[in-house]
Fold:
Amino acid sequence: MEFLTDKVALIGNKGKGIRSDCHVTMELPETGGIQIELISKVESMYGNDIRKLLHDIISFYGFENARMLVEDFGALSPVIAARVEAAVRHLSGSEKEYLLPMSDKNKYATTRDRNRFSRLYLPGNTPSLMINAGVHKPDGIILDLEDAVAHTKKYEARFMVRNALRNIDFYGAERMVRINQVPAGLADLEFLIPHNVNLILVPKCESAEQIRLVNEKINELKAKYNINGNVWLMPIIESALGVLKALEIAQSENVVALAIGLEDYTADLGTRRTQEGTESFFARSMVVNACKAAGIQAIDSVFSDVADMEALKENVIRSKALGFDGMGCIHPRQIRVIHENYAPDTVEIEKAKKIVNAFIEATAKGLGVVSLGTKMIDPPVVKRAQKLIDLAITLGKLSPEWHDEFLNA
Amino acid sequence: MEFLTDKVALIGNKGKGIRSDCHVTMELPETGGIQIELISKVESMYGNDIRKLLHDIISFYGFENARMLVEDFGALSPVIAARVEAAVRHLSGSEKEYLLPMSDKNKYATTRDRNRFSRLYLPGNTPSLMINAGVHKPDGIILDLEDAVAHTKKYEARFMVRNALRNIDFYGAERMVRINQVPAGLADLEFLIPHNVNLILVPKCESAEQIRLVNEKINELKAKYNINGNVWLMPIIESALGVLKALEIAQSENVVALAIGLEDYTADLGTRRTQEGTESFFARSMVVNACKAAGIQAIDSVFSDVADMEALKENVIRSKALGFDGMGCIHPRQIRVIHENYAPDTVEIEKAKKIVNAFIEATAKGLGVVSLGTKMIDPPVVKRAQKLIDLAITLGKLSPEWHDEFLNA
Amino acid sequence: MEFLTDKVALIGNKGKGIRSDCHVTMELPETGGIQIELISKVESMYGNDIRKLLHDIISFYGFENARMLVEDFGALSPVIAARVEAAVRHLSGSEKEYLLPMSDKNKYATTRDRNRFSRLYLPGNTPSLMINAGVHKPDGIILDLEDAVAHTKKYEARFMVRNALRNIDFYGAERMVRINQVPAGLADLEFLIPHNVNLILVPKCESAEQIRLVNEKINELKAKYNINGNVWLMPIIESALGVLKALEIAQSENVVALAIGLEDYTADLGTRRTQEGTESFFARSMVVNACKAAGIQAIDSVFSDVADMEALKENVIRSKALGFDGMGCIHPRQIRVIHENYAPDTVEIEKAKKIVNAFIEATAKGLGVVSLGTKMIDPPVVKRAQKLIDLAITLGKLSPEWHDEFLNA
Structure:
C-alpha cells in the first residue's frame, strides 16, 4: 500500500520477534474512500474478524477517507483496537474513545492491606508480555508507562495500557500502572481511572505534595466518571530527597505502600548498587521505618539478575529481615522464589497462633483486652497476626483447622 | 472461711513458689461484724502484728462489717497493707489512702545526668523480687506497671508499687516506675508522684505531645501535693514512628534519657530481633543521635538471654561503641557485666585526665578558655570529662590523687 | 633590645624548627623615636628590604615612637607585614589595614560544582606550610582559623590568613578558610571577604540559622567593599544535632557541599572513631543523603594516619562507594591517593559516554528528550555525565576525541 500525504501515523510494533501485536500505518487523505490492507499470519482464521473491527473503528470516527495498512502478528482485538485508535486520534485530534466492552473478569477491587509479596513489571507498550502474565500468579502486575516505554511510544502506550486494563485477564493480580513522573504523569490518569485500575505507582516521588496532586486528579476523574472504588497509591522512592521525605509521603492519603527503586537511587547518590547494599542500607531502613510508622507496606527494589535464583533468595531473606513486605520482579520466574521466602515461616506462624488464640479466648470471655502472659496485645498486633494466619492458610502452610489442633496440642 | 455475697475481692498472689506476698479474699457484707482469718507461715512470730495491721486498716476505713481471708507467704507490712487497701477500695470505691509512714531512706533525689549504666526491671505486682533488688546495686530499679503486669492485676499493682516506693529500701538506686501507655498511664501517676518517684518511664512513646501530657499531669500533682523535687522522664522508643520522632521526644522537658525497646520495635517492623541487630541498626543509631543532639543519655534495650554472660558482654561492648550510655536488665546477675563494660576504659580515662588537667591549668592562669594543643575545648566537653573522672574514681578505676600523679608523670 | 613598658606585643613564632616566619616584639613608648632591631638569617640578601618594609609600616600608622625587635626566619614580605601589623594594631587599637598589593594570580573565582576531591588543611598561623601547599595540586586549600590555631594566636592568625589570601600563590586550588564557630567566627569574615576567599568552612554547624547569619555577614561585607563574586559555603557537620539537621543546612543558600568531621562527631556521641566506622555509618549516610537531596557535594572526614597509604586508599574506596565526592587531607602526600581513588573509574566513564552520546544524538535530531534504551534521562543526569567526561579528560583518563572513537567502536 502506498501512502501519499505527509501526515502518516506509525503505531505499534513490527519486526523480528514481535508477536501478539500489530503495526498500523495510516493516513487520512481528503479523497479516496476507505482503503484497508491487512497482512496477518492468522488471516485464514481471523482475517474477516479483524477487517470487521478495522471498519468498525473507522466508521465509529466517521471518516469517509482513510488509508490503512495493518501488519498483524497475532494481536488480540483489544491490541488491534488500541493501535488503530491511537493512529486515528493522533491524525485527527479526536478525543473520542473507542472502547470494547470491559471484561467482567476485570472488575475486581483490592483491599488496602492485601498481600503484596510480588509485583511483576510489564512494559506498557508490549502486549505479548501482558497476555499470560496473570498465569504466573504474581500478587500484582504493573503496566509500566514510565521507564519501560520509549519517549516516542508514550502516546500509543496509554491506549495499549487502557485496553489491557479493560480486556486482558490478569487472574486476580492487583492491577497496577506506573505513570510517568508528576506532573507530566497526571495526564496518564485519564486513561486509567475509568478502567478499574487498582493502584497507581508514582515514580521518583519526593514530596507529599506530589501525592496530593495525584489524589486531586484521581478524585476529579472519579467524580467525572462517577466511580466509587478506591484507587490505591504506591509512591516509589528513588532519590536521596525522596528518602529523607519518606515519612510525609508514607502518611499521605490512599498510600498503601512505598516502594524503593535502587537503580535510580544509587545513581542519584553518584554511586553503584552492590550485592551487599551498604550504599543503600540507610535508604532502605528509612523507607521501612517510614512505612511501618505510617502503618503501610514496605516494598523492596527489583533484583535484576533474573538468572540467579540463589542470589534472589538471599536477597529476599535479607529484605524480609529488614522489614520489607514484598518486592518488584522483572521476570515471571522470580515470582515463586519471592513468594516462598517472604511467606511467613514456622516461627512467625507459631507466634501468630498464640496471639490469635489469646484473642479468641479473650472474646469468648467477654474481655476487652487481649493478653499473652502478662503482656497486653494491642489491636493492630492482633489484626496483623490474624492476617498472617489467613495468609498461611491460603499458602497451604497452615490447616484451616489449626485452632482445634492448637487447643488439643 | 465462707464468702456469701457476689462481690468478693481477690487481691495478691498465692500458689506454688509465691513468697514475700499474700493473697486477700474479702467481702463487705451488710451484717456480721469484722471477721478476719489469717493463714500465715510466720504465724508464730508475726501473727499478732499482722492481725493488728489488718484491724487497723479496716478501722481506718470505718467498716463495721467485713469478712477477710488473708493467706500470707511471708509478706512485709507494706505488702500486706497494699493488698488489703486494694481489696477495700475495690469493694467500697473509697478514694482514701492508707499509708504507712514513708521510710527516711527513700527520700533521696537524683540528678539529671547521674550515671545510668544499669536499670533493673521488677514486675510491679511481684514484691518478692523487689525486696532484695537494691542489694545488687543497679544504678536504677524499675517498678513496672506495664508489660510485666497482667491486665487483671493492673489495679492492685499500683498499690503495691506505691507502697514499695514508700517502704522498700533500694539502696540508693534511682527509683523508676514504668507507667502504662499514655493516655491510660497518666492515671498511674497519682500513685507515684507523691511518693518520691525519681523517674517515670513512658512506654511506646511516639510524640513530644505524649511527653507534654505526662509533664502536665506531673505538674498538676506536684502542685496538689506541694512537691518541689524533679521527676525525670525516660521515654521508651519501641516503634518505627517513635524512632522517626526521636529528636522531638528527646528535646522535651524533663527528659533525661531515651530508652529503646527492641522486642516491640522489631515486632512493629514485622521482623525479628537478631544477635547482629542489622534490623535495628538504623533505629539504634537514630535514638543515639537524637539523645546526643538533645544532650541527654541513650539507653539500650535489655538483653534477654540471662544465662549467656559472654554474649551479654559483647552486646554491651557494641552498645557502648555505638554511643549508648547504659541498658536495661532483667536479672540481677547481668548488672556486674553491664557495669564493667560500660565503665570508662583506660583510653577514655587518659583522655579525660588531659582535658581536666587543661581545665585546671586554664583556671589557675585565669584563662576563660580551655585548650588542648591548639584545639579549644568546649565547656560541655570539659564537664563530661570531669564527670568521667569522678565516675572512674567512684568505680575504683582511678585514684582520687590522680592529678598529682598526672603532673609528676 | 630592651623593652621598657608593660605593654609589649609578642606576635608570630620563633624557636626550633620555625621557618618562613618571624617573631615580632614591639612596644609603643611615648618617647625614644623609632628603634628597630632586625635579626635575620637572610640579613645579607634581604636585610635592607625587610628594614624598608618595617619602616614603611611604622610610618603608615604614623607612629613617632616605636621599639621593635624582629627575629626573622626567612619570612616573606606578606608574612612579615602580617606580624608587624598585628603587633601595631594590638598595641594601638588602630583599625587601619596595611595591605600589600594583591597578587594578580590570586584573583580567580571558583564554580559551584567544581571538582572537590581533596582539600588540604593548613594551620592559619603557620606560613611555612602555606608557601608550597599549592605545588601539590590539591583541589582546595583550607587556611584554618579554628582548631589548628591556639586561642592565644587567634588574633594574629587573621592577619596571616588575610595576607596569605592576598599574596601566596595556591596554584589554582580553591581558596578556602575555616572560620571559628558561629557566632564568634562571624568576625573572622571581615579579614576574608574583601580578599577573594572562594569558600568559607563553617565548623560545628547545627542549623540553617547559623548559615543564614554567615550569609548575612558576607552580604554586608560584599556590599561594603563592592564585591560581586560568589563566596561559597561548606558547613562542617560534627555533632549529632548537626547530623539530624543536615538537610536544612544542605539546602541553605550558597552552600555547595557539607563536610563531616568525625573526630568531633564521635566525641559528641561519647564513643571512639574506628577503622570500620560502624559508629559513624548513620551520620555519614545522613550527610550523603542530605547533600544529594540538596544537589550539592558530600565531603568526607580527614584520614588521620598520614603514614598508611594503603589504609587511606581503602578508606577512599569505601567513602566513594557511600556517595562521598571528596575528603579533607592533612598532609600533601595524601593528595595523590585521594585523587586516584575518587576519580571516575572505567565503569563510570563508560556509562557517562553512553549518556553523553545519547544527548549528542538527541540534540542532533532536534529532540527535546534524551533517552537510553526506553529510559528517559533527566537533564541533571546528563549534566553530571558531561561533567564526569570533562573530568576524565582533564585527568588524562579519557581522550578528548572519545566521541569519535565511541561512534566507531
Observations:
- The two ends of chain C are 78 Å apart (CA to CA).
